[in-house]
Each structure stands twice: as C-alpha cells, then as structure tokens.
Design brief:
The protein is α+β, with helices and mostly antiparallel strands. It has helices spanning 2-18, 30-37, 59-67, and strands at residues 72-73, 76-80, 86-90, 96-100, 106-113, 119-125, 130-138, 141-146, 151-156, 159-161, 167-170. Strand 4 and strand 5 form a beta hairpin. The N and C termini lie far apart (68 Å).
Length: 172
C-alpha cells in the first residue's frame, strides 16, 4: 500500500510541476546590467563602410517630419530627443541606427546584437571608436554605459535618468 501511495504522490507531483510555464522577466540591477553590457565588445569598427551616412541625406525632410511628430516614414524610423539630436533607423537594415546632431551631422552609429530581450546596441563615434553600449531590458527600459563602464542613462519609458536617478532627458 505504501508503494502505491508514493507512486501516486510522484505522478501528482510530476503533473503539477510540469503543467505550468514559468512566466516573468529578468530584473537587472545597474551592476548586473553593466556586466551583461560589456560582454563581447569590439573596440573599433571600419567607419569607411558607413561613409554615405556621415551627413543625413534626408535632413530637411526629417526636420519637417519631426516637427510634425511623425515617427515612421516610408523607409525609416525617426526618434527625436529634447536636446535636438535624433536617430534614424532604416527599415531595410534595422540592425544599424545612425545618430545625428541638430545639424544633421553623424555623431554615432549603433549596431544591434541579439534579438528580443535582453539585447544590446553598441555605439561607435564618428571615427569608429567604441563609445557606449545600451542594454535593452525590455521595450520600455534601457541601460546606457559609456566606454568607461559608467552608467550615463537609464531609460524607463519616455524618461531618461542619470546615475543619481534625476530626470535628464525625454524622448518622443
């Protein structure tokens, strides 16, 4: 009788534990995000490969679109920032995005690594040198570290906070 009792308990325990899918996300602290972010970073890229992006070829049109609040246009996605800088990501190559200053001059290139979450974007300056890395924890949360591993921004939704938790920027 005891043998049957243990068999029933084993079967019930197996059904109970295997019948549910664990759901939830990964929570990151600043330190765990830092470790994940700097794993497998290349310190330089060949910037000559990106010569055609040194100046925003759609600068005037992009300014008009941003002023109208348009974020998606034909072949590109546009993200504008409260300091006047903006980012363009072309639909034909979503792996790369191009960061421009207020005058449409390239100030950085970000290259995505990975799909889904977490994933990271490595940003290089206009000379091709490693500048920063962004860890995308979710659609609404990102950690950004500079080349010296200092937290420079923590985006939560449309708000950006510094290392002290102070609001420093917003995005549309």
């Amino acid at each position: 009788m005891v043998k049957y009792f243990f068999i029933i308990i084993f079967v019930l325990a197996f059904l109970y534990t295997s019948g549910f899918t664990l759901q939830g996300g990964i929570n990151y602290t600043v330190q765990s995000a830092r470790v994940e972010s700097f794993d497998n970073i290349t310190s330089q890229i060949n910037i000559a490969k990106y010569k055609k992006f040194f100046q925003d070829k759609n600068y005037n049109n992009n300014l008009i679109l941003m002023n109208k609040g348009i974020r998606y246009y034909k072949d590109r996605y546009i993200t504008s920032y409260s300091d006047g800088e903006y980012t363009i990501c072309y639909k034909s190559n979503k792996k790369n995005s191009y960061h421009y200053n207020i005058n449409g001059k390239l100030i950085g290139i970000s290259i995505n690594q990975g799909k889904g979450f977490p994933s990271k974007r490595i940003t290089y300056d206009s000379n091709g040198n490693f500048d920063s890395v962004t860890l995308d924890v979710s659609r609404t949360e990102q950690f950004i570290f500079d080349k010296n591993k200092k937290l420079v921004a923590h985006w939560i939704g449309k708000n950006c906070y510094n290392e002290q938790g102070e609001l420093i920027m917003t995005r549309e």
